[in-house]
Amino acid sequence: MPNKIILKKKISRFNKKIFIPGDKSISIRWVLISSIADGVSKAKNLLMSEDVLASLEAIRKLGVRVVVKKDICKIYGVGIKGYKYKKNLVINAKNSGTLGRLISGILIDTPFPIKIIGDESLSKRDFRRVSKPLSKFGVSFKLRNKCNLPLIMSGSQKLKPIKFFEKKGSAQCKSSVILGGLKADGKTIIKAKKSRNHTELLLKYLKLPIKIKEKKNFDLIEIKKVNKIKPIIYQVPSDISSGAFFIALTVLSKNSQIIIKNVNVNSTRIGIISILRKMGVKILLFNKKIYKGEPIADIFVRSPKKIKSINCPSKLNSGAIDEFLVIFLIAAKAEGISFFKNLDELNKKESPRLKWGSKILKLMGVKIITTKNSIKIFGNPQLEINKKIVIEKYLKDHRVFMTSVIAALSFGGEWHIHDKDAVQTSFPSFLKIIDILKNEK
Ligand code: S3P
Q1: Residues annotated catalytic, as ranges
Q2: Ligand 1 pocket check for 321: Cβ under 6 Å
Q3: Using CB atoms within 10 A of its CB, is residue 432 exposed (0-12), middle (13-18) or buried (19+)?
Q4: Which pTM does this prediction carry?
Q5: C-alpha angle 97-21-130 in degrees, rounded to nearest 5
Q6: CA-atom Rg of the chain in angstroms
Q7: What's the pLDDT tens digit per position in 27-60?
Q8: Can you tell me whether residue 77 is helix, strand or coil?
Q9: CB-side exposure of 210: number of CA atoms within 13 Å?
Q10: Are residues 15 and 30 in the same domain?
Q11: Which atom, in ligand 1's list, is nearest to the CA of 174?
């Protein structure tokens, strides 16, 4: 089977209700925290994508029993000190920054050195951002080029609490230190630039000793050593970062509408909704509820008559950090010039996404001006593509693949998009849902 897809036709109008798989960030957190709980945790709608399967594989290697049957995943937690494994353990985080960085925090008390490896993309990413704060607990790290995977960490049984100022707005760094803080004697204090707060909400729901003070630009988090975590029975809500591709497809199509059911709409995740509303798109959230601390809702989107350009406030960046590639596509169809700035973090993802976003727009014939951390997009509401576009060698970044599919279905042209397996990372049923929308009469 060729691992590329060819798309030659725009999608026709659609009007559908869809279900998107479970949230990736929450799924990985549930797996890791359940593994050190005392007793059996159960999850429904856990995302069964490669990043989460790698997380399950990682905890199995640490001596944790995992049973997946139909749509239920059971984790037989071994307690906060209960991991059992041999010397020379290697954990493969594959493509997942979240797994690699969060598990480093959990493993700070490892009695034997542990090696963490990853795939080509993850091996290019910065792990000093977690090894640096985690070392202050008393752990030692050896990293390739002092920065990258593979890394070897040697834990300590005498862990001191730390003070950490997280300035990048990285939930992975913040969460890694929070998880480390569960094992260090005393009070770990984190001042963190706003970012997704699923770890904090889950620990709060579990009544663990975590305190959060929300300030205007930062959160102040205090976490104390924990002896016992109760098991977590959880129904994982759908992932807005996966839903974003269908929100974008609806915005870029004519006379279409979509309902996406049961999505996590945590305020730290809905930057795309705030940005699109500023661009004149009507998006409604309904059936709102709070589930175990996390806000959930159904999302309704209708194709707008026109899209306004935006000078995007940087304070919305962190809440939309995984959605910028599709937001750029929408800006390409807006009336006027859009500007997105302070996006340094975007080039530090599974691929350098600011570069890839710019590259896709250029191939589409859209005028852009970029700097190393910003992009100006000259929108054209009449944008149509009539040429062949090839998307390849993009480090198999799942979001580059899915963005290219949305562009092909929205703007036309003949798209040859390589490495379609990339969707396995976060959204294995992506192309199936596209087919459901395509087949609608
Ligand atoms: C994630 C945090 C974000 C995000 C990633 C998932 C998480 O990364 O881009 O897809 O689950 O904590 P950073 O922490 O690097 O911003």
Answers
A1: 322
A2: yes
A3: exposed
A4: 0.98
A5: 15
A6: 21
A7: 999 999 999 999 999 999 999 999 999 999 999 9
A8: strand
A9: 27
A10: no
A11: 14
Same domain, 103 and 206: yes
CB 84 within 8 A of CB 63: yes
- Can you tell me the distance from the alpha carbon of 385 to that of 282, in angstroms, rounded to the nearest whole number? 26
Using an 8 Å Cβ cutoff, are 249 and 36 in contact? no
Name the residue at shortest CA distance from atom 11 of ligand 1: 25
Q: How many CB atoms lie within 10 A of CB 393?
A: 9
CATH number at residue 58: 3.65.10.10
Residues 263 and 394 in one domain: yes
- Is the pLDDT at 441 greater than 60? The verdict is no
Q: Is 25 in the pocket of ligand 1 (CB under 6 A)?
A: yes
- The widest CA-to-CA distance across the chain, in whole angstroms, is 64
Asked if 372 and 394 count as a contact pair (C-beta separation under 8 A), the reply is no
Q: Residue 343 corresponds to which tokens in the numbers above?
A: 């996006």
Encoded tokens for 96: 């997942």
Whether 346 lines ligand 1, by a CB cut-off of 6 Å, is: no
Q: Say yes or no: 54 and 201 in one domain.
A: yes
Tokens coding 193: 């630039």
